[in-house]
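Record type: monomer structure entry
Structure origin: computed from sequence
Chain ID: A
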Amino acid sequence: MAAWSIFGTEPEAKAKKLDQKVLEEQEQEVRARQSQVERPWHRHEADNPPVDKEGKQVAPVTKGKLLTTPTRLLKLIVPLPIVLHKGPDQDSKHDSGRSISHNDTIQPLALLVHPQQPLSYVERLIQAEIPPVVEKGRDKTPSVYFRAEDTQHGDNKPTTRSEARHKDEERGLRGTPHHNVASYSGLGHEGPEREGSDKRWIRWSNSTEVGDFIRDAARGREFAIDIEGYDVEMRVSVPSFNDRTYYMRAQLRRMSRQIDELSRLKRECDLLAHKGANLLAKGGFAVLSCWWGVVYYVTFHTEFGWDLVEPVTYLAGLTTIMGGYLWFLYISKDLSYKAAMNVTVSRRQDALYQARGFDLHKWEQLVQEANALRHEIKVVAVEYDVDWDEAKEVGDEVKEVLTEERTKTGHNPRSSEKEKDEAYTEHERRKKEEPGYDGIPKLSREPLQAPRAVME
């Protein structure tokens, strides 16, 4: 009877205990998975240092980085060490101790941000990866602060008026109101290293855009990220001009090679088109010269004389004038030598482009994108106060081609007149298609008013 108990026989009791233990382990596993989903610092082995393929320990990451990407996004890498203190018998997430680890070999955290996003967005991303702080027995989400170096003012300020005057004379700023002007001659992490006594940190508002914050932080070598409630200061190196424009300059160099090849083909086609237009103009002069010779010969060296040549020349001249007037009515544009040459050259160019496989749409798109990249790089160069050697990146010939095309499309008055003419022609065509249009312009329906000088 000793083998019997309230649970039955002894084997049955052992089986029930084993089943209960298995159920508890399964419940613990389910709770751990739910905790991993809710809070990333509960993940298994989250505080283990990274190792390479051979099992050797990787060098610790003590400073974060701000990297550029081909998609114009910024990749922020911060050394955020997280550790989870949890006992073997502690199943509830409220019984675990969460804190910031001082182990520098923890895997860094990577964040993708856009330059136009505010710092509060970066703050929320960091808050999602860190445990809350306990304040008055309650969990509180810690605040994140961003600080940058204030290079305009340092901690080693002059104490006397003579020292201040001497310092101004050394800098060449005596008598100038330089204390209210911010200096933006920053080179990022490529700039000179300054001692800790020369650094003065200022905290930036979290509503500031990331791009504006980085632009100001580039005056120093790094900026700092502080977490409220933890004694942690994460330093992040600021990208230099070469870092910020690395992918833009690489894309510009790749485009410049394509533009160089297309520009040579376009230059050959344009040269042949202009030569053809000049030959056509010379041919017109030759035809007029032949006509003059025929008129002279028939008038003075034949028996027909001026009696026959006079009506022929009159009718020929009148026919030419009527044909030119009809052509003017057809094209609705100014009839001049430049306009005729442009029409001839453009038609010849289109024929040569099609015959030699030159894609004009691709050319215009490449030139537009390359000029846009040039503008962006120049804006960054102005922000960093750097002299960017454009000819070194794209070459002198490509630089001249891009400048010439930008001048044609952006500052050429003839292109604007052409656009106005095309818009006017399209407007007239639409008016003719409207029902009830009688072909009489609206201005002609109104009574004409005499000039003021005549009325007086």
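Annotation 1: The longest strand covers residues 144-149.
Annotation 2: The radius of gyration is 40 Å.
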